[in-house]
Amino acid sequence: MSAAAFQPQIILLREGTDTSQGKAQIVSNINACQAVAETLKTTLGPRGMDKLVFDGRTTTISNDGATIMRLLDIVHPAAKTLVDISMAQDAEVGDGTTSVVLLAGEILKEMKDFVEDGLHPRVIVKGIREALKNALQTISEVSITSDDESFRSLLEKCAGTALNSKLIARQKYLFAPMVVDAVTMLDTNMLDLKLIGIKKVVGGSVTDSTLVQGVAFQKTFSYAGFEQQPKHLAQPKILLLNVELELKSEKENAEVRITDPSQYQSIVDAEWQIIYEKLDKCVASGAKIILSRLPIGDLATQYFADRGIFSAGRVSNDDLDRVAKATGATVQSTVFGITDKVLGLCETFEERGVGDERYNFFTGCPKAKTATILLRGGGDQFLAETERSIVDALNIVKRTLQSRRIVAGGGAIEMEIASRMKQHALTISGKTQLIVLGFARALEIIPRQLAENAGLDATDILNKLRRDHIHGKANTENARWIGVDVLQDASVLYASDSDATSSSGVCNTLERGVWEPATNKSNALAAAAEAACVILSIDETVRNPQSEKPGAPSQGVGLGPGGGGGRGGRMVSEAMGGRGMAGMMGRGGGRRGVNYFKGKGGA
Fold first, then answer.
1. DSSP string, 526-576
2. Whether the Cβ atoms of residue 139 and residue 516 lie closer than 8 Å to each other
3. Sign of CA dihedral 242, 243, 248, 251
């Protein structure tokens, strides 16, 4: 008998551990990603539907891809990659969060057949990256810019395109110029959108929303003497503090020993002398408005009111920073040594009512590099979705200002890339040609879903787009911008065949003003392709349902006494800083683990 027969069996994993690997695992991951894309696809475009997500505490109604992906609480590890790219798209560009998920899902769907046919994942990944390179090159070649005179109009159209699919699409002619004005007020070198405050006030109509060229924030907590302070000041000097202006009680267990009862009064007088000295220094600075991050007590409030000075404590960091940027003031951590150089200035300060709230307005700021958008609306849900829409439009305008290059939306750029990519694939030999062609077909998901969500015949629309993008170039160069006419009423298309030429469901989206920054499409394609490559590179998932339970005993052969691995029967993975599979997947023992994977086959 050979010596190999006496070699002990090496067991690396616990009994009951499930290992899914190979083709089945890749297909399972693709199926999970497709399920996520299916959930999101009906929200795409101006005619997209909304999703209502209830997390047990709050209800959110939105069609914003990043918001929905964040609230879905996806537990499948591979599908979480789509959440990551959606968040990255939202942070980098601000729009296209739904498109990037649909593109990634469709690319994986096209590659699924190749995986099932036995094509090696590394060959597929190579082909995807070859196709991505060609797509990015096409965007760079066809993107256009505008001169300085019409650049303002370009920005407004880009903002309007971002708002087309939002709840406030009907009011885009109000909000698009407002968003462009807000971004152009910022420092052109920084374009820090945190300096644009968005305040939501329940009540009134959405058309009552306004842009403040300066700073506005809600009245903070105040004491009785606040009502005696001035509510309107012309050209006031502004002092910003990070100082507490109130009498503080002694610390717990504080002890003061005195030998004479008369000394007690001197201690009390010293406390009052300290606070009055601070207040005198503030008044001596010449400031008529005093704002502080820390509380301003009732004594200080009345003291300032008697001297015609407006004061507000507990001002949020964001609001105080924006006041500093707008007025030129510098936040002080002490009231001693204050000079005119650290004081700010504005043309007008006033406190006035907005709905049921009171707001402080700083307008006519000489160094204004900030703005405030006051949103009005009938409910909290509406205002929350409006805020998300405005944030997306602000990001789009910012990226357009930085790149200064745009492409046409409505699926036009995707069809143009697909058309050129199919021609490019014919120059490639080998299996890579099939991958590139599959990538080109995947790009058609955007115009197809736009047409479906608008109630149009997606098959008919895609056939017209393919014809125009392939054969239309012989007649006009503008054929590259033919996209889906989403805003046309679907009932017109089916009214009569005789009107097919004027109601074809496709149009020149560039002439229609459906513009998007080129960086939006470039970033979405790059993120979707890389996500697909990552998911296709995963060929094994290891899960042990027993290890996910808190205090589960070891069932396998370990490295220490009792087979537990280490001292006291601890798990082997603890030596690597983990907590079994629950620790590797970033979840606590009491929460749902990897055994809640969703998908077909494999895991």
1. HHHHHHHHHHHT--EEEE-GGGGSTTPPP-S--SSGGGSSSGGG--GGGGG
2. no
3. positive
Sign for the pseudo-dihedral over CA of 580, 586, 591, 592: negative
Range of weakest confidence among 520-524, 531-535, 551-555: 551-555
Q: Which residue shows structure tokens 């007590």?
A: 297
User: Which residues form the catalytic set?
Assistant: 64, 97-98, 392
pTM score, whole prediction: 0.76
**The two structure tokens encoding residue 239:** 């002092």
**Res 442: pLDDT:** 94
CB 311 within 8 A of CB 229: yes
| Three-class DSSP category at 91 | helix
Task: Measure the CA–CA gap between 406 and 228, rounded to whole angstroms.
Answer: 54
Residue 80: Cβ within 10 Å count:
16
Q: What size, in residues, is the chain?
A: 603
* pLDDT digit string, tens, across residues 325-337: 888 899 999 888 8
Q: By C-alpha distance, which of 300, 292, 287 is closest to 334?
A: 292
**Strand, coil or helix: what is 411?**
coil
- pLDDT for 145-188, tens place per residue? 876 667 888 888 888 888 888 888 888 899 999 999 999 888 88
